[in-house]
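Hi, here's the filled form for the chain we discussed.

Project: internal
Contact: R.S.
Residues: 373
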Amino acid sequence: MQTELLAVDDADLQDFLYDGGWTDGLPVVAPTEEAVAAMLAGAGIDSADGGQPIGSIPSHQATLDAEHAAVAAVMAGCLPEYFPVVLAALAAALDPAFNLQVACTSTGGAAICVVVSGPLAAQIGMNAGHNALASGNRANATIGRAVRLAAVNLLRTQLDGTEGTSLGHPGKYSFCFAERADDGWGSLHAGLGYHDDVTTVTVAPTSGPIQVANHLNADPDGVAASLAAAMRMPSSFSAGKGAAQFVIALGPEHEVALREGGWTRADLRRELTVRSRIRAQDLLDAGVLLEQGSHHDMVPDADGFLGTVSDPDDIVVVTTGGAGGGWSAVIPSWAPKKHAQVVSRRVRLPGEKLPDCGPDGCAIDWDAIEGRL
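And the returned structure, exactly as it came back:
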């Protein structure tokens, strides 16, 4: 991508950017040269180094650099202190495993769900309490929006371009939230192998969240049963296909019930893997035909059941939201992980150099450089 400076009257700016296909339909902040430089500085990047690649999609001959990420962050309304999180989320979304070009163009309409875990989330004012998955917090709203704008403009997936979503959902505007501070159950970033003072960003290509209500049952088995029921919903595209991924946004009451019942995150992931299996007959009764010999080989096990998740590690469990009776959310992957996968990255502190992306892409050995324990 090349940067071009244009002179546009303030009164014409919104129409100019909208007509050019560079917005999400909502008004944006003017990406002036000064504002973009300030955004880059929020991550310790000098304007002269704005061409530093963040990631690329070689098949599309598309490379996203720091300056274009900063333009998206300015347009979305980010503050400069949010920019390191935006960069980490975009680096994750541009990992080949995430398969951004497919997630952004499929008929399924995936959002780029951004989950932030670690101390930086609170430092920049992210919301992990009431209404965490929705509106009202500038950091949550604009970080998620910046990631989406950067991805759409990189791939030109506008309505008159390669946008193929049949329906979509509001998370395609912005879908970003933070993990609640660890209260003894362990954090998401610690479970990924990072030090306590590290902040991570996990991105997932997801459908919209399914709210799970269980207000009366404080037994861990009951909480797990409710979550699993939402995971194996027959109308979900991934149900019974054996290799789905999920983000489980666990409300505080449900987290307390599990923790005080002696369960760990690993226990919950194992139970959900088993309990999310679905009877082939339940799919058929819901009008869903079993795919065989195609992208998804849905051959039932000997007991007549089909798996929805193949590996407990494919279930991301994060505590978020405010108290209020017993709400959680199951956030399904848009499609089985053969199509797109959850990816995590460490947030690099201002001034810390980004990895060398190289001229041909960004298939980086992240484990070797991510500072894991």
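Let me know if anything looks off before we file it.
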